[in-house]
User: Fold these one by one.
Assistant:
Number 1:
Amino acid sequence: MKISQEAADVFSFPLFSKEFCARVVESSQALKWRRGDVYKGQRREYSNVRACDEMRLKNFILLREAFAEKFESVVAPAVKFCWQWQIRRWRDGRLLRYHPGDYFGRHVDYYPGSGVRYSRILSLVCYLNDGFSGGETRFLRQNRAVVPEAGKAVVFPSGMTHPHSSEPVRGGTKQVFVAWLS
């Protein structure tokens, strides 16, 4: 497996084939999406931080089962190679869909007091399609943007060292799968 360092403690590697990603995107069209939420502590807040659709992974068996398999065979070994850490589980996977103008502003995925019931040590973003414009994942402190490519996963620390954003999609539709590792 080829692992690339995108920035300080930001690594990417191939996770799914382009064919599998196309199948996921196609299959997801028939499922029920909802507008994404932003939480402040335990309180749900709709704000100008985020504009995209989401679906919890528990509602999408095809992707959930495929990622569970890849977690053991690809993700855990990649994390061990990059950080010398043994991760044991993944949690709370979601499928996100960004239409033109949608974005996710500067944020971190975990901080003490965030209201998340478990520790998010690493974040994983897997791009499920390409062929759209915009939508790069920008790492603000590392001054680096990762260009989406179908099947490519990006893994990075979930906390305050890696604030990141999803730049607005300018044309087409972007879909990603996200999960948090511990």
Number 2:
Amino acid sequence: MDRLWPRGLTKERAAVDEWLRDLAPSNELRQWYHARPDQWELFRKKYLKELSRPASQEGLRRLYEFAHKKKRLTLLFASKIESQNNATVLKELLDGMKKPPTGTGPGAVHATRKREALIRRR
């Protein structure tokens, strides 16, 4: 997932259900990693830190929700490095390989739903 939609590709032609652009690395981090592809672990740490910010919480909630509902989920990325990119980090989170940032993950989604249900009842 990237913040900029690819030129010349319509969303209809891409058949994308949802574009969670707030989950993409910041432009600064993306450019930093592009210039330093050998710094994968540091990129990963910085990206996880970005994902822990409040601006990413709704996107993460939606991502976990999609993963829970769908049999197949496709994560798109623009990096030329197929094995080490932002989609790889998101897949690790979905697979439970790495601990998600505080306040995210399936447990947080469940807790948010409970809070929302309680608010609606009032």
Number 3:
Amino acid sequence: MTINIQYVKMPTSETMTGYIEKKLNKLGVKYDMIITANVFLKQEKDVAGKGDICEIELSLPGPKIFASSKEENYETAVKETISDLTKQLKKRKASLKRH
């Protein structure tokens, strides 16, 4: 699986990149059908304090899978987004028929 991480209008972080790669590699081991993961980290001004956004798009056979989360910090946003993707991948895997 290829992982592309983009920091939109914010400085890059080696720690965050390592954290994201670790989480996505775990997902890639469990679901070997994933080809590419595109990750976008954005920051938005929000009165409620939830301005850190993580968007992940997974390329795999069939339609792409996308999830997004807006939280108080990036670690939580990444965790929630990957949780949403895991649910979608379980549904996709259940619908695939092996021949």
